[in-house]
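Researcher: Good morning. I'm working through a list of sequences from a screen, and I'd like to move beyond sequence-only analysis. For each chain I'm collecting a predicted structure so we can compare shapes side by side. This is the next one on the list. No need for commentary yet; just the structure.
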Amino acid sequence: MTGDELTRMRLDIGGAVGASVLLDRLLSPTRAEAIIRSLPAEDLYRAIMRIGLEDCIELLPMISPEQFRALLDFDAWPDDRPDISRIDPWMRTLMQSGVEILTEKFMGLDDALINWIVREHVHVDVIEDPDSFVPPEGDTITTQDNRMCLSFRGRGDGELPVKVLLDWLMRVQPEYCYNLLVFSAAALDSHLEEEAYRWRSGRMADLGFVDPIEALGLYTVPRRGEIAAIREQAPQASPGDAPWLSPIVSADSRLHQALAALDKRTRAAVTEELAYVCNTALSADRVALWDTPATLRVMERVRAGLALGLDALGAGPEDDRRVLTEHPVALIFRTGYARTLDAAEAARRARRRGLLAGKEGPDKSPIDAVDAPALRLIVAAMTSRHPQMGDGRTPSTADDLQVLRTYGGLIEDLVDFPGDVRPDATGLCAWRLTRIARDLIGLEGQGALPITTIPIVHGALFADGRVTDAARSAAHSAWLRLGGKRAATIDYLLDLAALELAAVAPAEVDPRAVSMLVFDLAF
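Model: Good morning. Structure tokens for this chain:
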């Protein structure tokens, strides 16, 4: 095998060739197995995901047991526990290459994971008295020495590789098979999972993956003094090309221009830091290696956080070179991300306090009380784990942050209304606007409007298909007098009501179909 052959294969994996072409190029070299076993596990995993596991029957026999273990490290752990439904397809594909291939790869796994896989598929009964033993109902196998009865748990096609494997072990390595079955039967699931996770975490750390718990620090607000800390950059080796960072440093991005202004050594060091920050963010969000859409969302979040951080720490794009030179990339991101959290804090605080919750029930949501559909989407985005704009974008500019603050102020104004007691089944917007409508037509206090007031309320608010200037001015005064803080809030509510009612004749208003005012249907 030559270095050129390995390089060409890695370029094919990272290139744009189709799945069938990629598979052919992996299998066609004279010494394909030697080249494939020299591939980094990450490249091999990427290739298999592009080709499709079910089409890799010829490829999997060529990988080493260590590579197979790494592939399961990448694919079979959606969180802190292995997922048997993700392991079974690998076992089925290996089985199609023969029991010897299946056994070779399987036996290269950690003992804890081997026992866990067997335990997931097999229940073991030790036979004390063969003459009196009654096997359980279902699919069972009795070992040749009549010492144990194996009951399979009914996981469908996923069981077949384990059956084939155990049958082979009983014939070829009976003592090992007996010990495996006894230990897997006696072990606790939690113990096996914990031990397997510990071994897997160590291997992932060796590959540069960050522990998910430690990675959460990336999303914390920088402490006082951290932002001002200047990092003395030590010379570091260039990490080479990093095409997977292209969503962040694409040619039209601000970061690309800033990196281009750095000298070669500093650019290499900053690129290494950037890769580490992306890796940390992916780990903190527990993004699986196979989840490309989630990966791109995280990369976009990092890009946006860096843009906001560069703005906060510098004096504009022309100052980005200095900021990147003087501040760690992680700190730049945390500074920008903290700005996003701060801009969305009013809405997030209202949700934490339970002020946006509606009625109790199985479909209860923490933001049920936000009854205007468009506003509800925005609040859901702002109060998600990572604040977003209402259209799903990640905030990345000062204008975006101002939009979040504006909506946050609106939410704060809606929930913080002195002396007002809102029924759980009534939405915030409708209840607040109803209070103002009552005031405008001379009804004191809070509560639903009598149905008989529909023409009066309509006339007090609308004319010629819009909110009248007089109504808007009176609503401003009433809102501020009753405890509201921003005239813009009542403007928002009036505009929502106008969309629903302004063009409808009072006599045609159906109170059951009105969402922005509360009417007493029993009045």
